[in-house]
Structures are given as C-alpha cells and as structure tokens.
Specification:
Layout (H helix, E strand, L loop, with lengths): L17 H18 L6 E6 L5 H7 L8 E7 L2 H10 L6 E5 L14 E6 L8 H10 L4 E12 L6 H10 L2 E7 L6 E8 L17
Parallel strand pairs: 1-2, 1-4, 2-3, 4-5
Antiparallel strand pairs: 5-7, 6-7
Bound molecules: S-adenosylmethionine (SAM).
C-alpha cells in the first residue's frame, strides 16, 4: 500500500523525530536566506510542499512576510487544504493543488529566488532526480537558492546529487548529513543563467 501523505505529517508532532529535526534545519535555511536578501519582493516556490510547514512556519513568524510571494505546489488535496489553512494571514502565499513534476504547474510562479525540493528526491527515481536538478535553471532566478533533501539510505545518492548541481551551474552552500539519522539537507546557490520555463514536459514522477 502506498504512503498516506496526510498521515506522513504526524511525525512532526514529535519535536525530537528526525523529520522535525530536518524541518528545523530547512527552516533555519529559509530564515537565513530571507535575512540575507534585502529586496522588497521575493518569489518562493515549493515542490511537493505537503502542509507547507517549512515556508509557512518561517513566514508566520516574520514581520517582513509581505516581501515574499510563495507558491506551494502539492498534489494531495488534504495537505493542500491544511497548507491553505495555515496560510491565513499570509496574503502572499498561494497553494496550488497540482502535480509538481510537470513544468506547467510552475507557470507564473517562477523564476523563483528560493526553490524548495524538500521530500522530493527520495520519492522519485534516480534518473528523475538527475532530470529535476538539470531542469532547475528553468525554475530559478539569477542567484536563487535551492534547498533540497534526500535520505542517505544506501546506496547513498547524495554525492551524485551534489555533482549534478555543480553540472547545472550551482555552488554548494551547505550540506548537512548529521550522525544517527539518514536525512540530508543540501543548499545550493544558482550561479548560472536562468532558462525559460518549458511550455510542457515532465521533470519527475512521484512514486
Ligand atoms: C515526503 S512529503 C514532503 C512534504 C513537505 N515538503 C515536507 O517536507 O514537509 C511529499 C509530499 O509530496 C506530495 N506529492 C506526491 N506527489 C506529488 C506530485 N506529483 N506533485 C506535488 N506533490 C506531490 C505528497 O502528497 C506529500 O505531501
């Protein structure tokens, strides 16, 4: 039986769970990114956003949340509804109940200054991870930051992912692989030239 992606969020109820620890790291990078950007308007896009706990958790505590336009793309309507409910009071947040694996779902939401691929790379084929990283220049504005995660459960794909980011014109800014857990949080900055969003096509298929 497949994963129930609404139930999957229950691990966040335990503040000591690996998932909560991963969330804390991701949030710290979203905070740091926002602190480091002075622009009056910034675009964020989150693929497979779930209930949006990373982006929304940060924006809810920020006096400057109105600087951010965020598009959360999530396929499960229950999670999209939860994200929508959590986004009350954050008028810059849009939740799209859509397939984040297809380029068309990003229309109007990119180029983004921050792209989250959190909880994606462990749920698609290795070939799709590679294709998605290669496609990120079509989602990123110049100088954009990408925050991504991936389990290191063997065979560990994270060294290959790091190399694919380099191939696509990104510079590594952080790579967290804590002892005692299998999650990894990576942060890469786009140093290349942004590419147009393809009119159609697929980056990944979630399994
Ligand atoms: C591992 S969870 C990660 C959720 C969130 N990013 C987080 O870290 O809390 C994966 C999420 O992707 C969603 N999902 C699955 N297939 C999808 C697709 N094709 N497009 C968008 N979201 C999808 C699931 O419903 C689930 O909420």
């Amino acid at each position: 039986m497949g994963t129930d992606w609404a139930d999957w969020h229950r691990d966040y109820d335990d503040p000591g769970s690996p998932l909560s620890r991963r969330l804390a790291l991701v949030r710290s990078h979203v905070e740091g990114w926002l602190d480091g950007r002075s622009e009056p308007l910034l675009q964020v896009v989150s693929a497979c956003a779930g209930q949006g706990r990373d982006v929304l958790g940060v924006l809810a505590g920020r006096a400057d949340a109105d600087r951010v336009r965020a598009c959360l793309i999530e396929y499960d309507p229950r999670n999209a509804a939860a994200a929508q409910a959590a986004a009350v009071g954050l008028p810059g947040v849009q939740v799209r109940c859509a397939d984040a694996g297809v380029f068309g779902s990003y229309a109007g939401a990119v180029p983004a200054d921050l792209v989250l691929m959190v909880g994606v790379f462990g749920n698609v084929s290795d070939a799709d991870v590679r294709a998605t990283v290669a496609a990120l220049p079509s989602l990123c504005a110049a100088g954009a930051t990408v925050i991504w995660t991936r389990s290191r459960r063997g065979p560990d794909l994270t060294p290959a992912i790091d190399g694919w980011f380099a191939d696509a014109g990104f510079v590594r800014r952080a790579f967290h692989a804590p002892d005692g857990v299998v999650f990894t949080v990576g942060v890469h900055e786009f140093a290349g030239v942004p590419q147009p969003l393809p009119g159609d096509g697929v980056m990944f298929r979630f399994r």
